[in-house]
Structure formats: structure tokens, C-alpha cells
TrEMBL record:
Keywords associated with the record: Hydrolase, Metal-binding, Nucleotide metabolism, Zinc
Name recorded for this polypeptide: Adenine deaminase
Annotated coiled-coil segments of the chain: none
EC code: 3.5.4.2
Species lineage: Bacteria, Bacillati, Actinomycetota, Actinomycetes, Kitasatosporales
GO molecular function: hydrolase activity
Residues the record lists as binding substrate: D271
Record PANTHER family: ADENINE DEAMINASE
Residues involved in Zn(2+) binding: H9, H11, H189, D270
Amino acid sequence: MPLPKAELHLHIEGTLEPELAFALAARNGITLPYADTEALRKAYLFDDLQSFLDLYYGLMAVLLTEEDFEELADAYLARAAQQGVRHAEIFFDPQAHMVRGVGIGTVIEGLGRALERSEERHGISTRLIMCFLRDQSAESALETLEAARPHLHRIVGVGLDSAEVGHPPAKFREVYEAAAALGLRRVAHAGEEGPPAYITEALDVLGVERIDHGLRCMEDPELVERLVRERTPLTLCPLSNVRLRAIDVLEEHPLARMMDAGLLCTVNSDDPAYFGGYVDDTFHAVREALGLDQERLRELARNSFEASFLDGSPEDEAL
Ligand code: ADE
Ligand code: ZN
């Protein structure tokens, strides 16, 4: 039985499995530049974040209708349930769809249809987090927030993702202020490939409550001390870090050292269709590679509920 857990760092577009991509391509009359699912899987050899993002954005071409987004989310939730996920806070990238002529309403309402049935169908409570692409302009982020206004009842918060280096958090100060004024929660990717200073900036300038990844905080002992003191959650994604070459091998992942340092760590799958595992697969992988015992794994599962946007975290009682 997998441990009950919350997943807090999951890009719904990163759950697009090759089989579903080809099925949606056929339904939507799209020809993919891969012969078959096997050829597509063979392309999943990444040098860094950008080489992954190029493929990830390209494959989104198959997502066109509300039904497509509903099916994508429902397929993730079905797999997540088998992995012990009881609560999921799900990222989506509206700008990556709007640029292809897919309306933000199609994206949010399609995802929303799957999410509103999730508790009943899969036993998973959900929240939706809208991410801004940091390699797009600040104006585009503001326009995206504006376009999302009719759908805000479906969204708990905003995030920041895509190519990190050269796109510091402060670029998005205005849109994060606007999001806060609308009552939205705030998170941001920081310290995945970017320097520890981006983590500090996300906290101080954007007012985020959680740091997505945060891996590189370990290069700055004062920052680690602050994150421990303020009990700022980090949503780590160890399999992603290996696949995107932030670290060489899982055995070198700093997760255990980060937990020893007192950081509030969670373990997540990021883009599981691309990185070789869903969240419980990730728990197993870190147990094997880092020698984490059952108590450590339970701590990670408990942390996931504490770090979530659930009130009261009743799931905590079950652990
Ligand atoms: N978008 C999807 N996955 C991402 C990641 N790991 N980092 C930044 N942006 C992303
Ligand atoms: Zn991510």
C-alpha cells in the first residue's frame, strides 16, 4: 500500500503519456513528428531544462478541446490514486495554449471538469495553480491573469515556471501583486537551474509561500537557515533533477541532507510522463538511492499535507 500523500508540484501537461498524445493527435487530425510512441519515448533524452521544454511545448499541439484537457487530467488523477495521492495541487501553463489559439476558458473549464469529479471518482481532492511562463514578458503574464478573471473560482493560486536562468522572479512583481490582491496564493519555481538569489527574490519580491524545487538553496547556508526558520516548504522533484541533469545521479541528490538540515521537504513528480515515474515511484527511487528509512518516507508524506493549501489537513490524521 503506498503511503497517503499530497502531490504539490505537478504540471498537468507533463502527464501527457505518449499513448494519449497519439490518440489525441488522431482525434484532432494532427501529425506528430514521431513515427510511434516508441520513437517519441526515445526522444526523452534531455541535456537540461530547455531541451525538455522544447519537446514539452511541442507535444502540447495535440491538446485542443475541453475534452482533451478533461481526459488529460482524468488520466493523471487515475494514476495518482494508484500512487497513494489523496490531494493534488496541479499546475497548468495557459500561455503555452493561448499562443496556439486555444482559449484559456477551454483549458480551465476542461481541467475543471475532471477536477470537480476527482473526489468522487478517484478519492483525490484538488487545487489548480495557474503558472506564468517566465521566459515570456511581464505584460503577457498580466494579460493572462486578466484573461483568467472569469474562471478564478477554479484557481487557488499562481506559479512561475519555464526557462529559469535570465528570468529572475522580480520581473513578475506586478502580476504577483495583482494576484495577491485577487486573493490568490503564490508559489514559484526557483533554484532549479537558477541561483539561490532567485529563491530569496521569490520570497521577498513575489511573496511566495512555497518554493518549487529550491534545490540550489544548499549553496547558501544563510538561505537554508532562513528557509528552516520560516518553515518554507520546498517541492522537490528528484527524478526531474536527474533527467534534466541538475544532478548526475539520484544517489547524489541532496534530499537526505536537506531533511537533516531541517528543511520542510516534499517529494513530487514534476512531469512524470517524461521523467520516468509518478510520485510513489519517486518515493521508491529515493528510498533505494538515498537509503531513506520508512520514518523518513512518512515524514515526507506528512510534510506534503502540511505544505499543501488544504485547511486543517485531515489526511494528516491517517499517517
Ligand atoms: N515546466 C514544466 N516542467 C518544468 C520544470 N521542471 N521547470 C520549469 N518549468 C517547467
Ligand atoms: Zn516544475
